[in-house]
Design a protein that fits this description.
The chain is an alpha/beta fold. The protein has one domain: Alkaline Phosphatase, subunit A. Strands 1, 2, 6, 7, 8, 9, 10, 11, 12 and 13 form a ten-stranded mixed β-sheet that branches. A three-stranded antiparallel β-sheet has the order 3-5-4, covered by helices on one side. The protein is globular. The N terminus is likely disordered.
Length: 483
């Protein structure tokens, strides 16, 4: 556990002022699959830097901005992470929730008060509580995939229900694509990348934990990086190897000639391969330089050796050197697994919460030291919320849950509607087959609204938001206002 002083609320002045890869292209064959099979990506880097068509530039925004998606894989029990302390809304009090959750709910005296004290965070979230005290934390309540505003009666009648509710793979996909019907793999992060790409060899999108469906699609590409593995230039193009590779200049000349010849070919795949190799040569060299320069300026303490801490430290390095990479805007995907707490939740949830909280706190301390925290927004997403009810010594798959948004650009506070915690006649609960309270809560805020608020901050125009979130027009409020 961390103490309340783990996160410094000092805010230094900013200089000058305040997924799954595999989106197919139009040729009907996966460019990623072809290029990866051809072995054209740089060592330790999954990179497919084909040029893509940008239908429309991003809306004008000033200053650099970075968006970090922190995915809590498995379905995080956010109902024990954000809890009413002194809240009198009918059916939403601490006592109401305690009647359902009993020992699964942290004691009211241990909750860390935020805002006006009506709500509190899990006692293992001292760093997020400090972010809240510094007015850098927003909580988006009861959010989940929705086609349109939905009630339990709609669910009972089978009206406008997202596909495969309560299933891990389907719900992860819907969160990361912003599409509650699994008809496409177009991640809404891909729409952001396309809008902010300024023509550099590297697209300004990085996954630091495997495939990212959020960043996959037909508009742009992303680079997959390991949190620890060193990036090296494409073999045959490393200037540092000139001293020991025999006839380096001859090898270089042959490869350059081959690339030039392929680039002039009438064969579309040869042109694509030539373009990708050329861009990858530049991109891998830029990455090597960016990841190895000024790294000592970034100290995340003992958490940088943890799975999430290591990922966020690599993110911090790339943000620190974004100017070197020619990027004023970037998006990142990181992941912390283990949240599917069907069993041993009382033991496991505090461990997970502590890992999450310490890594985020250290990340923002590092950004503070670099003078970058006001331009970096981190948001959480998860498969789904969990049931309010207990299932043995754990909880089951739910639907709605709470999300957290952190950073200097955040308008601190609570957004969205808190669901009812009443056992009888609960207006938000999906009853079980026998008509009894199940604790599966229908979301009152959609992923489309949540994602559109974040994407607008990154500069997407109204038409780009409509394309990224096809169901957004079904909701009266397009921007939730937390940025």
């Amino acid at each position: 556990m961390t103490n309340a002083n783990d996160y410094s609320v000092q805010r230094p002045a900013m200089p000058g002022g305040s997924g799954d890869g595999g989106g197919d292209g139009g040729d009907g064959i996966s460019r990623r699959r072809f290029l990866q099979g051809a072995g054209l990506a740089a060592v330790s880097v999954s990179m497919t830097a084909l040029p893509r068509f940008l239908a429309e530039p991003a809306a004008a925004q000033t200053g650099p901005r970075t968006l970090v998606c922190l995915f809590l894989a498995g379905g995080a029990d956010s109902f024990s992470m954000y809890v009413p302390r002194d809240h009198s809304e009918s059916g939403s009090t601490y006592a109401d929730l305690q009647r359902i959750r009993a020992q699964f709910l942290p004691p009211i005296g241990s909750l860390l008060p935020i805002g006006d004290g009506s709500f509190g965070l899990h006692p293992g979230m001292s760093n997020l509580a400090a972010l809240a005290a510094a007015e850098r934390l927003a909580v988006v309540r009861n959010v989940g995939p929705l086609i349109r505003p939905t009630t339990p009666a709609d669910v009972a009648a089978g009206r406008s229900i997202p596909q495969d509710l309560f299933a891990h793979d389907a719900q992860q996909k819907q969160w990361q694509t912003g599409r509650p019907v699994n008809s496409a793999d177009q991640g809404w992060g891909d729409s952001i990348t396309a809008a902010i790409h300024a023509g550099s060899a590297l697209y300004p999108a990085f996954s630091i934990n495997g495939n990212s469906r959020w960043q996959s699609g037909d508009l742009a590409d992303y680079t997959g990086l390991s949190p620890n593995t060193q990036v090296r230039p494409l073999t045959g193009y490393s200037w540092s190897r000139r001293r020991w590779i025999p006839s380096f200049e001859q090898v270089e000349s042959i490869m350059a000639s081959s690339i030039a010849s392929a680039g002039q070919s009438s064969n579309a795949f040869e042109q694509a391969a030539a373009d990708t190799v050329s861009r990858s040569v530049v991109a891998s060299g830029e990455l090597e330089q960016a990841l190895n320069q000024r790294v000592g300026d970034i100290d995340m303490g003992d958490v940088q050796g943890t799975p999430l801490g290591a990922q966020l430290r690599r993110v911090a390095v790339l943000i620190h050197n974004r100017q070197m990479l020619g990027m004023s805007r970037q998006i990142f995907f990181v992941r912390l697994g283990g949240w599917d707490t069907h069993r041993l939740q009382i033991e496991q949830l505090p461990i997970l919460v502590n890992q999450f909280d310490r890594a985020v706190g250290s990340f923002y301390r590092a950004l503070d030291n670099l003078g970058l925290s006001d331009s970096v927004t981190t948001f959480t997403a998860s498969d789904f919320g969990r049931t309010l009810t207990i299932n043995g010594d754990g909880t089951d798959h739910g639907w709605g849950g709470h999300a957290f948004v952190m950073g200097g650009a955040v308008r601190a506070g609570d957004y969205g509607t808190l669901p009812s915690f009443a056992v009888d006649n609960n207006p938000d609960d999906i009853p079980d087959r026998n008509g009894r309270f199940s604790g599966r809560i229908v979301p009152t805020t959609s992923v489309s609204q949540y994602g559109a608020t974040l994407a607008r901050w990154m500069g997407l125009s109204d038409s780009q938001l409509n394309a990224a979130f096809p169901e957004l027009s079904n909701f009266a409020r397009r921007d939730l206002g937390f940025l």
